[in-house]
Amino acid sequence: MAEKHPPPIFGTEAGSWAQLTISDRYSNIVNRVIDENDFPPDIVEKLVKLRDEIPEQPIRYLRDPGAPDIKDWETYIKPMEGKDWMIVPWLFSEHYMYRRIMEAVDYFNLRQDPFRYQKQQGLNKNREDIQSFASVLMSWTKDRSNAQQYIRKAIYYSLWGNQADLSLWPADKPKKPNHLSQQNRKEYLLADDTNRIVKLLSQSDRKIGRVDIMLDNAGFELVCDLGLVDTLFTHQQAGEVLLHTKAHPTYVSDVIGTDVDQTIGFLKNTEADETCQLGNRLEEYIKEKKLKVKSHFFWNSPLPMWNLPTDLQEQLSGADLLISKGDANYRRLLGDLQWDFTIPFHQVVDYLPVPLAALRTLKAELAVGLDLDQVREVYNQDPNWLTDGKWGVVHFAPGLKKSGLV
């Protein structure tokens, strides 16, 4: 990693996406939680209080006795206590906001996902796209001679599936961009290391044992990610896949463990034959213990990726390839810092011991691995290119030798 870190992103820059998120989007998200759940009056009152204290009221400690992450959050909050929501790092602010929602809905006692409605709608509203994708996957299973071609296509599906972000585009207001067509996939890619990823997966001298995927959104994106898993197994490009999920609901649509089970159940119980067969194949991978799901509270923390806890360090170091999905995971990889757009991606993430692929559509004001002329060109074409979800990157970094993180 670059020796000198740039400063964090804050919400204090006028007109920035971070400022808009804190001043406006947070309240809208809390309002949706209230509207989409039948919570008792005492929980609704807590949610209203949370909504009304953003952004001027000071950051406070959690009031969630007995929660399994309470001690960790005391450590995270200590240097932020008493400050308002705008003047703490945005990475902290967002994770703290969603953790406060968990506090308000008493999640660790009631175990009711306050974003469940949106996640379910993310499947229901995309039935046709899911059926079409399942049909494509089925066609790939009948041709075992073009593994590299199908892995490449599955990577693009997984990337652009990230445009189905329910925190930005609620399922009942589908105005999101859509680049699933072959033409748009290349046109809106600002960096494309897909060939390097495919080469790693397809190398003849060494079999890939395990691929780890840091999941992002439930709904259609998760189906696309599971399609990538299916393609890896169908074409024998991985012996095992480990899916990393959040330990509690966050960012509206981020995947928790039960979302994987419920999504596979949704696929299995769909009338379309190809979709049902996809669900059956995924269920069989789980039964065979080829596909595994692990959650960890680190993925809900406001920490940069280079602060991985020891147990997660050891777990990730067992992978032959780590795939990071989506914007929030990308921000964590970069520490949500104000990096120069032109610094090479591999230089920022060289603290990881394993090869890393990052599949991300841009929804926040940071990016690396780009050319300065390219940045000028895309800005002139689309002034909101960093946040509107239209543009994507596929980055690859080779990683350090598997001797532990540094």
Structural summary, described in words:
The chain is α/β, with parallel strands linked by helices. The protein is 45% helix and 10% strand. It is built from 17 helices and seven strands. It has a seven-stranded mixed sheet. Helix 11 (220-234) links the parallel strand 2 and strand 3. The longest helix is centred in the N-terminal third of the chain and has 19 residues, at 17-35. The protein is globular. The protein starts with 16 loop residues before the first helix and ends in a 9-residue tail after the last strand. The relative contact order is 0.13.
State the shape.
globular
Which structural class fits the helix and strand makeup? alpha/beta
Helix fraction bin: 40-55%
What percentage of the residues does DSSP assign to strands (E)? 5-15%
H-E string: HHHHHHHHHEHEHEHHEHEHHEHE
Mean pLDDT rating: 93
Oligomer: single chain
* Biggest beta-sheet profile: 7 strands, mixed
Radius of gyration: 20 Å
Quantity of strands, as a count:
7
Q: Tell me the distance between the termini.
A: 10 Å
- Count of helical regions: 17
The parts where pLDDT drops under 50 for at least 5 residues are 402-406
Highlighted features:
406 residues; 7 strands; 17 helices
Describe the SSE topology.
Layout: H1 17-35, H2 41-53, H3 70-77, H4 90-104, H5 107-110, H6 116-124, H7 127-141, H8 147-160, H9 182-187, E1 189-192, H10 194-202, E2 210-214, H11 220-234, E3 240-246, H12 257-268, H13 273-287, E4 291-296, H14 310-316, E5 321-325, H15 326-333, H16 345-348, E6 356-361, H17 372-381, E7 392-397
Parallel strand pairs: 1-7, 2-3, 2-5, 3-4, 5-6
Antiparallel strand pairs: 6-7
Helix pairs in contact: 1-2, 1-4, 7-11, 7-13, 8-10, 8-11, 12-13
